[in-house]
Write a structure and sequence with these properties.
This protein is mainly alpha-helical. The protein is 80% helix and 0% strand. The chain has a domain at 34-112. The chain is built from 5 helices and no strands. The longest helix has 24 residues, at 24-47. Pfam families: Hpt. One of its GO terms (molecular function) is protein kinase activity. The modification Phosphohistidine is found at residue 59.
Length: 114
């Protein structure tokens, strides 16, 4: 289990709000839509044990999460990359479930700001 990281870095969120201004809500909606797509990619590639596709999805998702200041999600995606690199199905399944949980936990925090 990853160390307990904040769901969102408030400094990153403030910087994004200041930078994006009226487009901040659109940024959040795009991130949430991308999150749904990435979760599908993770689950699909895990089910097929396609470790390269799983690693790529986790890597891309990690970058998106990092850009949004989603600290715990970014760390979990890093761990998913490692599980894929090791072709560790048990670890990948555990981390994939953790990513699902973190996505559910972060969604209301983001939608209240959109």
């Amino acid at each position: 289990m990853p160390e307990r990281l904040s769901d969102l870095d408030p400094d990153v969120q403030t910087m994004l709000r200041d930078l994006m201004q009226d487009d901040y809500g659109s940024l959040l909606r795009t991130f949430l839509q991308d999150t749904d797509r990435r979760l599908c990619q993770l689950h699909d590639s895990l089910a097929r044990k396609n470790w390269e596709a799983f690693r790529q999805a986790a890597h891309s998702f990690k970058g998106s999460c990092g850009n949004m200041g989603a600290l715990a999600l970014s760390k979990a995606c890093q761990q998913a990359e490692e599980a894929a690199h090791n072709a560790d199905a048990a670890a990948a399944a555990y981390i994939c479930n953790l990513i699902d949980h973190l996505c559910l936990r972060i969604r209301p925090q983001l939608t209240c700001h959109s």
